Amino acid sequence: MDAYVVTGGGRGIGRAIAERLAAAGTVVAVELDPAGLDWVDGSRVRGVVGDAGDEAVLAEAADLAESAGRLVGWVNNAAVFRDVPIPATPAPEVLATIEGSLRPALAGCLVAVRRFLAAGTAGAIVNLSSHQAVRPVPGSLAYATAKAAIEGLTRSLAVEHGPAEIRVNAVAPGTVATGRYTELLETADAETVARLEREMAELHPLGRVARPDEMATAVEFLLSDAASFLTGATLPMDGGRTILGREPQP
Question: Are 1 and 26 in contact (CB under 8 A)?
Fold first, then answer.
């Protein structure tokens, strides 16, 4: 049986990816918050609690995946969303915030590549980027910088390890209706909700935000044999937001 590891797999896009991949094999979801794994059944989806930037935690996840089958896919979804005011924030704090999103992807790629090479098998990695890697919005310096670095990491690993049949790609979502987004709509007043929905429709040429399962579909494709000659690419799953290039209102 094929096996996969998904970091940040407890909620939102990560959970949607884990649930989608579970139809094809065993999935190990890595999640920092134990409550995020309450839905995991322990059969087709198994959980590992810990920091996705910790190589020891990721090694545990890889061991669990390999005990269930052949590790064929790895998804680096875990990230940190936190604004750092510029120029008031000291450089070390800015760098630490960047690292909060970059380190899990880097550590995940390193562990995945090591396991694929040790097994002598082909493998696929998908990193979650963002439309902000190429079109940052105000207040997103740390997050946008980390995501731009992740896209560079994706291309570099694709070049270095392509000869070993290891493919590395990225998916760059626009706005997705995850828990944070839906909670905002549920707690805001009617005027704010109407303004937010109107603004999101204007930012995305398709006129709406994405669903988590649409991101899962893209990841599933990039991990599959249908994408066997695709590597080093970033797939913009943003409803056209990047090409439109319209900035959100302050």
Answer: yes
pTM for the model stands at 0.94
Report whether 113 contacts 161 (CB < 8 A). Answer: yes
Evaluate if residue 249 carries a pLDDT over 70. no
Number of domains in the chain: 2
Place of tokens 């989806």: 45
Domain that residue 83 falls in: 2-174+211-237
Under a CB-based contact definition with an 8 Å cutoff, are residues 237 and 170 in contact? Answer: no
Dihedral angle over CA of 88, 93, 94, 97, nearest 10: -140
Residue 193 CA to residue 197 CA, distance in Å, equals: 6
The string of pLDDT tens digits covering residues 8-19 is: 999 999 999 999
CA angle 3, 148, 184 (to 5 degrees): 80
Q: In this structure, is residue 229 part of a structural domain?
A: yes
Cα–Cα distance, 217 to 237 (Å, whole number): 10
Give the span between the Cα atoms of 242 and 131, in whole angstroms. 6
User: 87 with 167, same domain?
Assistant: yes
Q: Which residues are catalytic?
A: 143
Count CB neighbours of 184 within 10 A: 12
Q: Which two tokens stand for residue 147?
A: 């995501």
- Which CATH number goes with the domain that contains 101? 3.40.50.720
Residue-wise DSSP of 142-182? HHHHHHHHHHHHHHHHHHHHGGGTEEEEEEEE--B--HHHH
Residue 55: Cβ-neighbour burial (10 angstroms; 0-12, 13-18, 19+)? middle
Instruction: Give mean pLDDT, residues 222-245.
Output: 96
pLDDT in tens, 13-49: 999 999 999 999 999 999 999 999 999 988 899 999 9
Provide CB contacts within 8 A for 153, sequence distance 6+. 105, 106, 109, 127
